[in-house]
Each structure stands twice: as C-alpha cells, then as structure tokens.
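Hi there,

I know you've been waiting on this one. I reran it after we fixed the sequence typo, so this is the corrected version. Both the input and the resulting structure follow.
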Amino acid sequence: MSLSLYNTLTRSVEPFAPLAPPRVTLYTCGPTVWNYAHIGNFRTFLFEDLLRRHLEASGYDVFHIMNLTDVDDRTIKAAAAAGKPLAAHTEPYAQAFFADRDFLRIKPAHAYPRATTSVAGMVALVERLLARGVAYRGDDGSVYFAIAKFPGYGRLSRLDTREIKVGARVASDEYAKDDPRDFALWKAAGPIDEQVGAAWDAPFGRGRPGWHLECSAMALTEIGERFGVATLDIHAGGIDLIFPHHEDEIAQSEAATGQPFARYWMHGAFLNIGGTKMSKRYGNILTARDLQEQGVDPAAARVLFFQSHYRQPLDWTDDALQAAAEGVRRIGDLGERLRREVGRGTGEGPGPLADLGTRLTTEAVAALDADLNAPQAVAALFEFVRAANRELDAGGAGAARALSAFTGVMAVLDLEPGARSLDPAFVGWVEERVAARAAARRARRFADGDRIRDELRAKGVELEDTPAGTKWRLGAGLPT
C-alpha cells in the first residue's frame, strides 16, 4: 500500500505523488510569536511532525519550512502595550517556542524564515501583483489584492463566489469567516507601526506586510532559491487557517507565478477543553511549559494526541492524559525488556517475537499510509506490547527482530518515556520513604505503609513490589 493523504483542496483522500521524488517540500504555518504557543497550537505541530517522520521513514527526502510570524496586527499591538520595540517583544516568545518544540520532541524544521527578515521578498511579490493588474493601491495608502480578478478564488474553502463583495476591502489580518473581500497585501504605516519599529520603505509606500502575504513570500523564496520551483508538495496547518489565510495565500501566489501554490493541502482539527476550542480568546489555554512544570512526560501528550485522528476534534482531559501516561509506562517497560533480552545475547534469529515485530511494522505502516491513521498505528503498538510481554515471559525467541521493529515504529511515533534529570535530594527522600514503607510492612503496620505509598504517589512516584524488593519510578504523566 502506498501513502495516501486527505487533500482539503479536493475534499478526498488521494495517492501521494510529490513533484520531484524523492524530494518533498513541506511548508507548515508556524506560531505568531506575540505570546506563548498553547497545546492546541502544538496539536497541529505534532500532526505535522508525524507527517514528516512518516514521509522520511517511507524514503522521502523532506525539506521542511516553518515560518515565524513576528510582525502582524497582534504582535504590533502586544509590543506597543508592553512598551517595547517589536523585536524585543517577539524574540523571547520565539525562543520559548523552540524550547517547547524540543520538549514535545518535534523535529526542527530545516528552515525557519521570519517575516521581519523576509520583507524584501514580500515587496517584490507585491510589485509583481501590481504589475499583473491583480493588486491596486487603495485610497488609504495600502495595497490590496483584487479577488474578483482571480477566478479561482474560494476553491479551497468552497466559498460561494457570488458572495464576493466587489470593491469592498478589509485591512485586518483576521476577518470574518465567509466574508470574501479584497485583502491587504501591504498596509500603510501608522503611528503604532512606527512606534514599535514595524514599518519599511517600499516603492508603493512606507508600511508593512499583511499576514497573508508573508507566508506566500517566505514559501516561494525558500523553494524558489533552493529548488527553482514555485509549487510546494504539501502545505499544512490548522483547520482555522483554511479561510481566509490559506485561501488568500493561494490567490496571491498563483496570480504571481501562474503555477499551483501547493499540490496537497492538509489541515488538523481543533483541540478542545470542556467541549470548547482552546484559545487565548476564551481564556482556556494550557501551554507546553505548563505540562513541563506539572511533570508530564512529553510522550504522554504525544500518545493522547495520536489516539485521535488529526482530522477529528480532540477533547483534552486529565483522565485521558493519565491513561496516556500509563500507556507510555507500558511502552517504556517493554522497550527496556527487549533491550535487556537482546543485550544478554539471546533472542537472535526467528521466533514468535520476530513474527510479532514483522506484524507491528506491517500494521503501523499500513495505518500511517492511510492518511496518517495514528490511532490505528497506536492500537497496533499496544497490541504488540501485550503480545511481546507474553512471549518474553515464555522465553524471548526472536527478540532482536522485535526490538528492531519496535525501534522503527518509535522513530515515527516517539512514545517511549523521556529521561528525567532528578534532584539528588529528591532521590534520597524517595529512597528513605521506600525504606520506611518496607519497615512498616515488615512490622505489619500496613496502614502506615499505605500512607507512605500515597505520599510518594502525590509526588508522582510509582512503586512496584517484586520478589527482589520494592522498585520505584516516576510516572509518565501528572502526579495523582
């Protein structure tokens, strides 16, 4: 089975065929660095991480571009409110995004163009659109795209083009859904722009780029300079970007180049909390740094996200996270068992474990080839964990091949527990409490033993009583 992906442009699952295989150009809309990215944003970034990892595991040579929006309406307003120049306000949030990306084990993109350092390409794109007669100078000093002059406008979002408001303009970066108007390519500089340093000189007037223009210019510059093409293989982002952002990107890019802007458009669904989309607007945000402070293993977040298909909404709950954390523990325990078995020099050659490994690889690849069906791939992994533990109990024949299959799947899903750097004082306290519990149990003071177990559990420490004594570990998710 070959890879098939859902293309928003055609509303169908299509066989994937890049423009110049094995190369794949992938552009993903990155964060707007006016504040911390929340885990709703990272749900999209994680689906894109899964896409990239599976493409690479399938033999494609992926070139991944993710922009940073460091100038737009929100960044300018936030910088002005903070009394800072634009760059001084956005840079800490850009660095926070990179740290959060690394915490959640998202592979770094190959290029991170920033809007503020890409203005020359944006000016050139506006000039091109003016020369082609699909853009015009407004009486407010801004430059607008004339959507009525681009016949394909609305095909991504399936807008009724009869509703286009001919001659009506909208300067805001974000505007009402299903409200197609001429959008600003270049905004005339105002006092607040000059105040924070968000204004540049251009032949058509001093100002700054509109948000929609930025992604087109950065994407076209990256793939044009590197590969001499004007068409992306895949453009991905959140479902909320279909209109107006991606619709406007298509219009201005294709009007300028005469080429399709992207062959496949992929969009991830929302993350909800209490049935409501996670958004700073609704005040229900949770950030990656919140998870880190709470001791959540990033693998638990990855399991939780991947147990829902990227095109289906996902409800985030503490109970779901705890269940994902337990799954991560089981995955990690099996990985350790397989490595120990192989390290002992046993488990080489064929056997039941080798057969389980072959089945895992086949089922996981088939699932991900079917429009990134991560829930099915994760289910195959957990079935492998259950069956492999049973076979290890019976002797471990074929462990080496099973470990190879497990490692290959982990390279794509990346769901093993993360290593933690523990404070020696905390380790000493845990060991003292474990010893106190053992003494209480020997003295048949079981209530005291249970109390100590609860005390440890409150700190995220899990105990396992074995014939060789009590073992402890930190849980993969939130402390209970």
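Quick highlight: The first helix runs from residue 39 to 57.

Best,
R. S.
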